[in-house]
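dumping this here so i dont lose it
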């Protein structure tokens, strides 16, 4: 967008303007088609002979089907009027081929005579061998299917350029750049379809019609060039007074009018010089914008859109059509198709003015400009060898290609590496820096500071500030590439990076992709750190439970044992279990029967030492093999439950019932003590440990107070894998 502030106040509704633009464009297309179609149809496609003055038949259909292709026609007559055919009569584009206006006037006079003959009911062609061919033209007009492809190409270019520029203007009515773009679209609607009327004729059109069409073509082309000069005076930022743009347009209008006053003798100069000056001026203005936009990446991105569209489109047209015509080379056979290049101009400029994805311009636009320079060098060298050294066309092209390959391409590669090469941080070093963001040791610089430092080194933004992310999951490019928004990650806040590469570039989707990878890496680092810390906490909890339930029970048994050998045995078993707790590896049996047998003996000894009677009931089939975790949990639960009876219940009798089913083990322990206290105690962790062990095995646990004691019940699924 231009530097002017845009106020969205429309003088006309955009839909209304678009409807009017469509109606006008379609009206012009219909008018041009009718003008081309109303000419008498010969069914001939002619081309000027390379030697001698005559016309060569390329193809013949319909009324002229009897004339063989390749026939060289030297004259045509009807009634009393006869005219010798010259190469001049088959000139496609007179602007660059006539040389002088006197030749142009002769050309128009001959076209009028040929058009009168062509409109006769019967005409006679004579070949260079003296053979005559009688043709009866279709006076009703030329069939639409016979209009060549380049006719429709030129009409399509005019219509599309007009509609694109009108669509931009409809939504940017207050923007000077959009006004100049609209003027260029109107100019294209003039010159492209007007050229289609006479550049695709079979033999002739009336001189007056051809002159009008040719003048409209030149006038439209002049306005087109002037509009782009005016456009660059205000886009991407205003660099000249407001009056200068209209003055440039006025100069071209005056230049056009000067032709009717016979100010110019050379038609080529009159119709090509000022247009070429305008093209050169646009490149000069582009260079000015490039220099003053060094600190404005958005303006430079808009300028890149202009360079891409203008250089590739209009620049190529000037190189291959206008410049050769100025030097006397006839390029009219390809001129109709060359109009397609103007679609690139309007596509690129419309996208730029509408501010659509400006940030997607990366290094690739420089490659386009570079290859255009290669083509320019190739054309200049070819023209130099062809006209300066008088080499043949094939030899000059070959030499030009060799010079481009040997001199230019190596030079281009060196310049690209020197000025456009980008230094990227080593991937391994970058990975380590991102990992260090999450693994920052306590007391060192914060993770936020390290994260900001990583972003600063990768993207070199002018500023990094904390912000609120609208989308907490995605990397966003905002303000046409001026800012990059990073979402929050873990303890890191959302960040806004402004003006990439010290303000000399816009953020590109490639930058967003790189930032997404960095965010994913640091997110993974935080998740890994959290998983590690969770594992540490779980391991500490496991050790604490085992120390409390297993080692505590063993030491309590040793404490109550009055027999010295038994006390020593309990202490040695406690040391063995302690090693198992530390290594999380218990070498005990993996059979429920063996585990219960050991627990029965151990529990009986502990309760007897505490003066408590035990009744042990066990039923159900034996399960041969279960997991070590199941046996360890059963052992720990039983030991903790017995320890609680000894320490807290004041009971003198305990009933232990174990029911072994095919899929689960049910444990029930009941004492005749004082029951649970009315106020729950928060001093111990034994009950919590038991619940957690049962829950880890997907079992159930309950503890309730009876009238004369406490009842603990646990159900543990039996897993054999």
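and the seq i came up w/
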């Amino acid at each position: 967008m231009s530097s002017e502030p845009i106020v969205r106040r429309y003088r006309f509704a955009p839909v209304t303007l678009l409807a009017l633009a469509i109606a006008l464009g379609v009206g012009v297309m219909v008018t041009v088609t009718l003008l081309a179609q109303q000419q008498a149809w010969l069914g001939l496609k002619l081309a000027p002979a390379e030697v001698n003055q005559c016309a060569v038949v390329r193809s013949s259909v319909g009324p002229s089907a009897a004339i063989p292709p390749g026939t060289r026609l030297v004259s045509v007559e009807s009634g009393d009027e006869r005219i010798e055919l010259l190469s001049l009569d088959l000139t496609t584009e007179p602007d660059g081929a006539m040389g002088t206006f006197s030749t142009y006037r002769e050309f128009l006079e001959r076209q009028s005579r040929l058009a009168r003959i062509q409109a006769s009911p019967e005409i006679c062609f004579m070949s260079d061998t003296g053979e005559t061919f009688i043709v009866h033209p279709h006076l009703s007009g030329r069939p639409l299917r016979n209009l060549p492809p380049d006719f429709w190409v030129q009409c399509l270019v005019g219509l599309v350029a007009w509609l694109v520029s009108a669509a931009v203007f409809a939504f940017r009515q207050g923007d000077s750049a959009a006004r100049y773009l609209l003027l260029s679209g109107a100019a294209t609607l003039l010159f492209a379809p007007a050229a289609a009327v006479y550049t695709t004729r079979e033999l002739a059109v009336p001189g007056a019609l051809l002159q009008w069409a040719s003048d409209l073509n030149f006038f439209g082309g002049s306005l087109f060039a002037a509009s782009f000069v005016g456009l660059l005076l205000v886009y991407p930022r205003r660099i000249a007074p407001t009056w200068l743009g209209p003055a440039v347009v006025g100069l071209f209008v005056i230049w056009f009018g000067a032709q009717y006053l016979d100010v110019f003798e050379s038609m080529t100069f009159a119709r090509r010089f000022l247009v070429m000056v305008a093209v050169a001026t646009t490149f000069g203005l582009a260079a000015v914008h490039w220099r003053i936009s060094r600190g404005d990446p958005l303006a430079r991105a808009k300028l890149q859109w202009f360079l891409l569209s203008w250089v590739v489109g209009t620049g190529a047209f000037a190189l291959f059509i206008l410049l050769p015509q100025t030097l006397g080379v006839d390029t009219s056979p390809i001129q109709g198709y060359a109009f397609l290049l103007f679609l690139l101009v309007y596509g690129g400029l419309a996208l730029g003015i509408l501010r659509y994805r400006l940030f997607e311009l990366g290094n690739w636009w420089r490659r386009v400009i570079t290859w255009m320079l290669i083509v320019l060098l190739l054309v200049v060298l070819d023209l130099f060898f062809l006209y300066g050294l008088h080499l043949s066309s094939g030899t000059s092209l070959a030499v030009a290609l060799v010079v481009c390959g040997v001199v230019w391409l190596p030079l281009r590669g060196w310049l690209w590496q020197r000025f456009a090469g980008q230094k990227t941080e080593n991937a391994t070093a970058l990975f380590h820096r991102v990992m260090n963001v999450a693994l920052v040791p306590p007391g060192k610089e914060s993770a936020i500071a390290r994260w900001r430092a990583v972003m600063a080194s990768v993207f070199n933004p002018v500023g990094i500030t904390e912000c609120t992310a609208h989308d907490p999951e995605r990397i966003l490019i905002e303000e046409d590439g001026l800012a990059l928004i990073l979402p929050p990650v873990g303890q890191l806040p959302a960040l806004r990076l402004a003006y990439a590469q010290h303000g000399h570039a816009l953020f590109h989707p490639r930058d967003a992709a790189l930032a997404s990878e960095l965010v994913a890496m640091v997110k993974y680092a935080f998740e890994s750190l959290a998983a590690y810390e969770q594992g540490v906490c779980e391991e500490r909890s496991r050790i604490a439970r085992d120390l409390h339930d297993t080692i505590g029970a063993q030491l309590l048994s040793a404490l109550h044992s009055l027999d010295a050998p038994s006390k020593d045995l309990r202490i040695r078993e406690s040391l063995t279990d302690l090693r198992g707790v530390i290594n999380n590896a218990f070498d005990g049996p993996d059979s429920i029967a063996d585990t219960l047998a050991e627990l029965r003996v151990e529990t009986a000894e502990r309760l007897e030492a505490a003066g408590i009677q035990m009744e042990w009931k066990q039923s159900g089939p034996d399960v041969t093999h279960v997991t070590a975790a199941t046996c360890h949990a059963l052992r720990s639960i039983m030991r903790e439950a017995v320890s609680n009876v000894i320490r807290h219940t004041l009971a003198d009798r305990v009933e232990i019932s174990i029911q072994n089913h095919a899929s689960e083990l049910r444990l029930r322990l009941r004492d005749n003590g004082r029951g649970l206290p009315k106020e729950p105690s928060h001093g111990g962790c034994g009950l919590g440990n038991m619940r957690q062990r049962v829950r880890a095995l997907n079992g159930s646990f309950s503890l309730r107070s009876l009238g004369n004691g406490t009842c603990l019940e646990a159900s543990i699924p039996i897993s054999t894998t």
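The chain has three domains: 14-36+146-361, 422-585, 588-717.
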